[in-house]
Amino acid sequence: MKIIALPLPKQRVFFHCYPSEILLKKVTIHDRVVNRIYNTWDAWSKSKSFIKQKTVSIGNRVLHQTPHEESFLKSFSSAKKLDDGEFHSTTMIERPSSLEPNRIFQELIQLQGMRRLHRNNLILNIIGLPLTIPFILIPIIPNVPGFYLCYRAYCNYRAMLGTLQINRLLGKKEININSNEKLESAYRSFLDGDNHKLNEFVGHQEFSDRYQRAIKQVTKSPNNQ
């Protein structure tokens, strides 16, 4: 997997990963289910139903509040489909030249330590599910609390798997971390208010928005010192 690393305030690091060609060829039942859910969500966003539109609006606000660490861990969890040889030969980290490798290592270690947090949250979400049963009795309104707890339980589970892949990465004697001048240039343009180069480098038009949300999360959080 290819991982993009960018600086955050308070000595933190933002990670974004792309699946390798090998990983893209390993399609699982989980991948098919997730794609079906994404397609359903997209259909709801285009629906004229007030309830579906409202649900999508609330859901998107919740998604935008997801901690950047969790988003990366969920994405990185898919690396479990790779054997050790494939994993270590294809996993690399690209950084702007202004971002020191030591900060990247420290962030990886911090992510590695989040397994207990996501395990505890997973348990709490599962415990809370029975409390949403009364909403099932109202056929007109979707069981939004139940959907939310299921979604959060799924996110915590995938994030837990992601921490295990961080363990694999840190277990490698030498992690492939490369300085990229094009990424440095795109990062500098972002700091100057031009998001286009960064989005173009990553290949995702909403990437800079995600990065900006991560910056705000770290800036506002009292736990990131």
The assigned structural class equals alpha/beta
Beta-strand proportion: 5-15%
**Share of helical residues:** 55-70%
Please indicate the count of domains: 1
Give the N-to-C terminal Cα separation: 29 Å
- What is the approximate shape? globular
Mean pLDDT: 88
Q: What strand line-up does the widest sheet have?
A: 2-1-3-4
Cα-atom radius of gyration: 19 Å
Short summary:
The chain crosses the membrane at residues 122-141. Keywords: Membrane, Transmembrane, Transmembrane helix. This protein has 225 residues and is α/β, with parallel strands linked by helices.
Give an account of the 3D structure.
With 225 residues, the protein is an alpha/beta fold. It has one domain (2-220). It contains 12 helices and 4 strands; from the N terminus they run ββαααααβααααβααα. A 4-stranded mixed sheet has the order 2-1-3-4, sandwiched between helices. The longest helix has 27 residues, at 144-170.
